[in-house]
Amino acid sequence: xxxxxxxxxxxxxxxxxxxxxxxxxxxxxxxxxxxxxxxxxxxxxxxxxxxxxxxxxxxxxxxxxxxxxxxxxxxxxxxxxxxxxxxxxxxxxxxxxxxxxxxxxxxxxxxxxxxxxxxxxxxxxxxxxxxxxxxxxxxxxxxxxxxxxxxxxxxxxxxxxxxxxxxxxxxxxxxxxxxxxxxxxxxxxxxxxxxxxxxxxxxxxxxxxxxxxxxxxxxxxxxxxxxxxxxxxx
Length: 234
Hints:
- By secondary structure, the protein is of the alpha/beta class.
- The chain is 42% helix and 18% strand.
């Protein structure tokens, strides 16, 4: 049984948020193929034995032509099942055209009302007939990659990674909020913070660091996902 999972998200965070549900499906049907718009996802889950492959989609502007593009991509994968973690008929139609027989998708959810965690949890539970469905993302990291993390973390402190960047302006928490959070935590213990943000968000991390009272913070905007994941799991 060859199962695929369609994650129609560009941001790495939104994709990784669904990793727990991908694992549930893989435990039932074997290692899965993930289809996504996120170019960094393959690097982030490269060590995961429950992920067979990550297929990166090209951006297409015209919706009608995009349906045929998606169907062509899906047809090449020879999937028996496809789980679509996104509302809308366009991806479903592409999957039908590609010849996939068993297709599951968000039928009664509008995009503006989409709650990523609740929708994915309920969808997975329903598709797999689960009484409870874990939502916490867990990473598989090879020993060689763990060594990378150990060379970067501060062993004399409690290390915290904050994802301060975002793929969209509506999901940014803001410089003031992150600065206040770090300063308040520093009053209680000896922490070291890594600020994770995009390569074009240097100004964001610099603003946060300039507002921190205790200078035990650095930016990870130049770090690759392969280097970052071991830090998150060390």
